[in-house]
Amino acid sequence: MTLLHVPTMLFVLTALLLLYAGYFGLAWWMDRSRVYNAFLMAPMGVGAVAVALFALRGHISDLLSIVISNALVLLACGLLLTALRLFDGRRALALPLLAGALVWLVACSIPAFYGSLISRVAAMSLMMSIYMLAMAREVMRNHRQEPLHSRKPLAFVMIVHAIVFAIRIPLMWNHPLADKGGLLSTPWISAIVFELLLHWVAFALLLVSLSKERAEADLRKRAETDALTGLLDRRAFLEKLQSVFGNASATSSFVLFDLDHFKSINDRSGHLAGDRVLVAFSRILESHTPEGAILGRIGGEEFGCFFPGVDRDEAAEVADRVRLTLVETDILVGDKLLRPTVSSGVSDIEEAGASFEGLMLLADRRLYAAKSAGRNRVIWMDDPAPARDLEALAIATVRPVAV
């Protein structure tokens, strides 16, 4: 490892950091909504200056090569931690952003600390390890909600870097460093700097990969989402339904909703009114369905909802709560007050014979029956139900509501 020329590696690292700063700066300029790219650009630039100052140790003042360079390194770590917080939608915090650099500057103002190389290296190693572990934790906090493939490798790289910095502390006692210009010629320093170079190459590449995965996921979500309602579109809904259907229990249910007289709403009140009704119904559907339900807009005014592990009677109750809420919802468009209604048909896997097509066809048949029976109701079985059951589920014929 002594063949590795430390100043050369440091200047190579400086050039790489400047390139990374340019990349993230361009990414931010192209899409200002991704503020985290600006916070990734800044630490790369700050880090490049810090590494260059450290590489000039012995050729420039100690104030620049020791105090300022290390303060900039800690500031860069604070900026990176902030960028990772912003990436996952959390707010920036001043304390982790500035704490490391401020602690270092205050410590260096104490003569006993500044005069001890061991104290300085131990303090920097400890703070760098803390920052790296904090960044690894930040990367993994949203892994379940957004399982991007680059999260785990990125966290691993930062944990390894934290361990390397922690190892520097015992190395100081077993293999003391030469202060001043001889610092960079200390044998084990070349191994540390080589790891530093590899770390930043891997770290930046994984950051690029993480950002790319997020962009691809956003595009995929847009492609699968109905632009008006925010629910899954027909293709995405059917694909997701088919993907879970094979493992769903026999009691899992499917509900097909269709807004009543929707064409009349468009014709009489305009397409804006129709859009308002669709959006209002979508929000009602989302608010009443249990966690794990799969929702989608599968036609103009037709919506589907799959309830894994929910039996047909319970699904019918949910469908009727949706129906009642819509009836009671006033939708104002200009000077027109709309009170739309919805009909629905319910089926489950057990009666459909574990057939995906059968499940949907049975729900569609019952939806047609609900329409034929006067609309604004839920049908969940083929045979007429006793009147008390209809009343219990609140799906008996209701008075017409003007739209």
UniProtKB/TrEMBL annotation:
Protein name: diguanylate cyclase
Signal sequence bounds: none
GO terms assigned for molecular function: diguanylate cyclase activity
UniProt key word Transmembrane: yes
PANTHER family, sorted: DIGUANYLATE CYCLASE DGCM-RELATED, REGULATORY COMPONENTS OF SENSORY TRANSDUCTION SYSTEM
CDD domains assigned: GGDEF
Catalytic reaction list: 2 GTP = 3',3'-c-di-GMP + 2 diphosphate
Name of the gene encoding the protein in the UniProt record: yedQ
Keywords of this entry: Membrane, Nucleotidyltransferase, Transferase, Transmembrane, Transmembrane helix
Domain spans labelled GGDEF: 250-383
Bilayer-spanning residue ranges: 6-26, 38-57, 63-81, 93-112, 118-134, 154-173, 188-210
The keyword Ribonucleoprotein is annotated on this UniProt entry: no
Recorded superkingdom: Bacteria
